[in-house]
Amino acid sequence: MAQVKKPYPVTELLAAVRSEILAERRSDASDAQKVSLSGGRLVSSGAERFEYLFVCKKWYESLDGAPVLVRASHSRGPWSAAEAFRMPDGTVRLVVAESLGQSVRNAQIRKDDSAGLVVLAERLESAGEADSPIRTESAGWIVGQGNPQTARDSDPSRWVANWQALRLNSRQRLAIEQALASQILFLWGPPGTGKTDVVGYIVEGSFRQGHNVLFLAPTKVAVDQALERICDLLSAQEGFAEGLVQRAGDIEVPSLRERYGEYVDAAQITARVSAQLDEALTGATQTLKDIRALVALHDDVTSLVEQLATARAAHIDARTRRAAAEQDALRAEAHAAQLRLKISRLGTPGGLFAKRKEGQLADLGNELLQADAAIRGARQLNVDAGRRASQAAQQIDELSGRLAGARARLAGVPARTVLAQQADATQKLLDELDQQRKKIQDTVRARCRVMGATVAKAVQSRKLLDRVDVVVIDEAGMVDLPSAWLVAGLAGKRVVVAGDFRQLPAVTKGEGDRKATEEERAHSRQWASRDAFHAAGLVAESGAVRQDPRLVSLDTQYRMREPICDVVNVVAYPDAPLTTGRDDRSRIPFNSLVDSPVILVDTSKQRIAGPDNKANTVNEAVVHELVRGLQYEDVLPGRKWDSVELSQGERATDRLAVIAPYRAQVKALQGSLKYRFGEEYEGLVDTIHRFQGSQRPIVIFDTAVGAGKDPGFFYRGSGLSSHTCRLLNVASAAPRTT
Fold first, then answer.
1. Residue 531: CA atoms inside 13 Å, Cβ hemisphere, count?
2. Residue 384, C-beta contacts closer than 8 angstroms, at least 6 positions apart
3. 55 neighbors 38 (Cβ within 8 angstroms)
4. Is 686 left (phi over 0), alpha (psi -120 to 50) or beta?
5. What gap in Å lies between CA 167 and CA 499, rounded to an integer?
6. Which residues contact 250 (CB under 8 A, 6 or more apart)?
7. Full-model pTM
């Protein structure tokens, strides 16, 4: 059978994904959480399945049953895929596809971050097949293929409520108008330009056009923040409470959970609309449990009867053996007495027949010894039989008592055969109710018209919506190219790609894999690390944006004070500077410490050398003192302030964020500021990557530079497409005030 040729660029994307898998499994993963195992031994093996048992002193529940990677401790070789399970006795069962040998002295396991990539490769493999959900035409738009329609809707008020009254600038309106009339739109939304609002109106308009919308973003937080805005726009729509908008996966943002969780969480919707069925399921489950308990009681009585019969037989046997032993002992004693009498009558050997008497006495002595041994043996058998008889008697008493109690509990209970029939009928009812429950879940899913999910969830799920007309990819600059191509292919009519290609890119490893060839790294750069904007030809090699009818750029920002925006323009948007659409007033209480929108603290003269570039104790101390000063100025809550008494907007995380490029510095700052505030605030200190898309009035950006011999990976690049530009852009654009 001839092999079907894969559509372009599936082969290229597959190679890139496989390089990512290899890079992940060849990585030392120095920052990953690892579990040490010892004393491994092979317990079973089969076709591509080898099962080992290991001793484990410290375990993480998140690894139980999850895909993991394993390799020998102190090894520098590649990791192997495995599954790990914690056993009740504390040992760890590890299942691998390749043998590790009969025994493994020491090994390490960690979470398999390549597991999602494996699924991505499998989905890409199916592209072009008849039953594949990937529509290669719309997927191709991501890499500049085809001639997708671009136009402007002449009357968006048909689709977007209160269109004329909305506070939107001309570029924002253009983006919405073009999205609602085109097959493809690339929306460039730098920080603070209202991209989330624009995307929300695009989703609203697409919904009112009769389309089913799949909204995707690379992180749970990004999904939730946008989905909350979409819910604001559609909450008054008929059917909203029954699952019109849904969230696939766990909700991360508390405000979405609190405001709309019961309406967008499929499990809660299903539970609400099927409460009566759930009650029937609960009742039937309890009934079956009770019936099985009664069946078990019948079985217990039967078992006790059998045990009692066995104990009585053992008692009778022991008594019989004891009586026999007593008779044997008496016979042996009588025989011994006769022998002693004969010995006495023979007397002392002498005279003519002395030799003959001596022989007779020797024979009688030997026979007497045997008789005495027989006596002792019979007496021991008597004792043993008596002990067994006593034990059997005690067992009979115990079993009789238990049997009497069990029979008392069975009084009025139907026969076992009747109970078995009832159990079968109840199980059948449960199966029917469960099928009805599943149908309700399918019905709830069918009611969904707007589904929000992470890109990874969409890649790994076979079916999130019964029909997908529009795919919206938000924060697309952070989505790797193979994933963007695949999810765009789920769209039947329209694709909207929104994001900022000058903020942080997708996290990929192939282009930096030192064990790969330069050709392989170059392939990874082109087919894994690039975002959709670059792949579609909208961004030049230099990083400059190209004018294109598929692209709409938002150019007015409303987040930052103008001096902060000026910094951001110099760093990331020199060719397309943002204008400021807000006033210059500060949103924090007046204070003498932070009296300017932009403050640079130069710590270079106080440098303390460290082991690497990822942590800086001088910067940590400076941040600590800055926070203490802001507490003194009543800008931030003090160490002993009761956080419960603080109103919205006054909490530490309402006003401040401290961000750094490396986890090591983040960890050090978290410890320092936990002492400063008296408790640890989630989200107060984080990496720049995790903070992308968020904002605070005050942001302290700790570069962490200075302790190591060189600035580090994030500061090596130059140009508008470099990691350096993107990192500094995210850090600089996060503050609203200072």
1. 30
2. none
3. yes
4. beta
5. 21
6. 220
7. 0.76
The DSSP letter of residue 557 is E
What's the whole-number mean pLDDT along residues 496-521?
93
pLDDT score at 1: 43
According to the model, what pLDDT value does residue 534 have? 96
Helix axes 416-447, 275-346, angle to 10 degrees: 140
| Cα→Cα distances 73→35, 78, 85, 95, Å | 10, 12, 19, 17
Which tokens in the block code for residue 291?
A: 């019936």
Name the DSSP letter for residue 545: B
Q: Which residues, 6+ apart, have CB-to-CB distance to 673 below 8 Å?
A: 623, 624, 627, 658, 680, 681, 684, 685
What digits encode the pLDDT tens for the residues 425-437? 999 988 888 887 7
Phi then psi for residue 653, to 5 deg, are -75, -10
* C-alpha dist (Å) from residue 645 to 159, 258, 264, 446, 588: 44, 20, 31, 44, 19
d(CA 662, CA 676): 21
**SS3 call for 654:** helix
Element (H, E) at 158: none
For the chain, the straight-line distance linking the first and the last C-alpha, in angstroms and rounded, comes to: 66
H-type helices in 448-559, by residue range? 455-460, 481-488, 518-524, 532-535
Mean pLDDT of 709-725: 79
> d(Cα 573, Cα 502) in Å, to the nearest integer?
8
Task: Please compute Rg for the chain using Cα positions.
Answer: 40
Q: What is the pLDDT of residue 645?
A: 59
| Overall average pLDDT of the 597-606 stretch | 87
Q: Pull the structure tokens for residue 181.
A: 């009339």
Res 74: pLDDT: 85
Taking alpha carbons only, the member of 248, 78, 234, 264 closest to residue 160 is 234
Task: Give the residue from 619, 606, 605 showing the smallest Cα distance to 685.
Answer: 619
Hey, what are 117's tokens?
């990539």
| Bridge partner list, 68 | 82, 111
Q: Which of 27-31, 239-243, 679-683 reaches the highest mean pLDDT?
A: 239-243
Task: Give Cα separations from 590 to 461, 584, 622, 698 (angstroms).
Answer: 51, 14, 21, 13
pLDDT class for 135, splitting at 50, 70, 90? very high
DSSP letter (8 states) at residue 526: I
The SS3 call for residue 106 is: strand
Q: In angstroms, rounded to a whole number, what is the distance separating the alpha carbons of residues 668 and 676? A: 13
Contact between residue 217 and residue 455 where contact means Cβ atoms under 8 Å apart: yes
Determine the Cα–Cα distance for residues 340 and 357; give it in Å rounded to an integer: 15
Check the CA dihedral 145-147-152-154 and report its sign.
negative
Is pLDDT larger for residue 126 or for residue 277? 126
Among 220-234, 238-252, 310-324, whose mean pLDDT is lowest?
Answer: 310-324
What is the C-alpha separation between 629 and 319, in angstroms, rounded?
93
